[in-house]
Amino acid sequence: MADDVLLFDRLLEVAVLLQQDMDRSLTGIGLTTARTHLLWELNRLGPSTQQALATTLGVSPRNVTGLVDALERHGYVDRQPHPSDRRAVLVVLTDDGSRTIAQMQQDRRAVELALVDGLDEIELGHLTHGLDKVIACLHDLMGEAGPPAGGTR
Amino acid sequence: MADDVLLFDRLLEVAVLLQQDMDRSLTGIGLTTARTHLLWELNRLGPSTQQALATTLGVSPRNVTGLVDALERHGYVDRQPHPSDRRAVLVVLTDDGSRTIAQMQQDRRAVELALVDGLDEIELGHLTHGLDKVIACLHDLMGEAGPPAGGTR
DNA sequence: TATTGTTATACTCTATAACTATA
DNA sequence: TATAGTTATAGAGTATAACAATA
Question: Which of A100, A115, B24, B137 is the most exposed place for a label (fewest CB within 10 A)?
Fold first, then answer.
């Protein structure tokens, strides 16, 4: 009957569970998904202007202002004057921010270990292979349908 | 180096892509993720009180009021008096709402087909098997860590 | 007394537009 | 003139608390 989206449903369930798992560790410490995303990218990029963060995150500069305000208020980042451009500010991780990111990376590794632990090497290979195909296929689907005036055909 | 969360990263990428794919079809027709979620559950449950919807969706009754307001405003649902409880209202899909849901189900089937099309039967079996293990593992992780005063041990 | 839905209030994420200070 | 970041304004999702009508 409704069994015609078996793979889709499984992927969706994984997505929901991952989201829940990541949300769980953010409660009560002044972090949210959006703020954490910024923190994560800031850690990847190193000290950055808000403009750079807006581009990387794909959100408006105004939005970054709000997120940095909140992260600064909670002590995760600092705003420093840009050394060569007095219009800009450099957003940098505080020690607390760095520690928080490190903890998150450790949590991810723990989840990864738990997941891999339940699979033998063959199963893991098959799963990885299948996921890569799914990812490629979804990228294709997005590419085709993205902007109204496409031309991949 | 940073290659120690390979599986996690793949699952995360799938989650992001799925979210993007689902968002894509909602733009410009008065729908959002939250509203669509309500519509979807309403279709599954049949005519429901807002209380029932709040419970099913795991959000506050106040939140449901806002979502139903918006969906009603855009013609996807109607509020009808509850036949036996004059405090409650029954939220029901309009014809337009039903058509929209049907279209979404069809879109899902199309994505499912595209995904399955890229895999032979063996690969599909392996992928499904791996995902089921991942889902079970994630459920375990959530269960263990969920409420502070757990007792699964 | 308990429940259904609402109004009141507040916080967060998001966007666009106008404005300031600087390039 | 263009760019970086801010203030102003607005819409959407979410929550709690207080309140009205009804069970």
Answer: B24
Q: Could you read off the pLDDT of A82-100 as tens digits, one per residue?
A: 999 999 999 999 999 999 9
CB A78 within 8 A of CB A139: no
Residues of B in contact with A19 (CB under 8 A): 15
Cα separation, A148 vs B52, whole angstroms: 38
Report the distance separating Cα A71 and Cα A98, nearest Å. 12
What does the pLDDT look like over A114-131, one tens digit per residue? 999 999 999 999 999 999
C-alpha distances out from residue A121 to B3, B45, B122, Å? 16, 42, 17
Interior CA angle at B151 toward A107 and B5, to 5°? 15
Does residue B68 lie within 7 Å of nucleic acid chain C, judged by its CB? yes
Classify the C-alpha dihedral B110-B112-B118-B121 as positive or negative: negative
Calpha distance B68→B41 (Å, rounded): 12
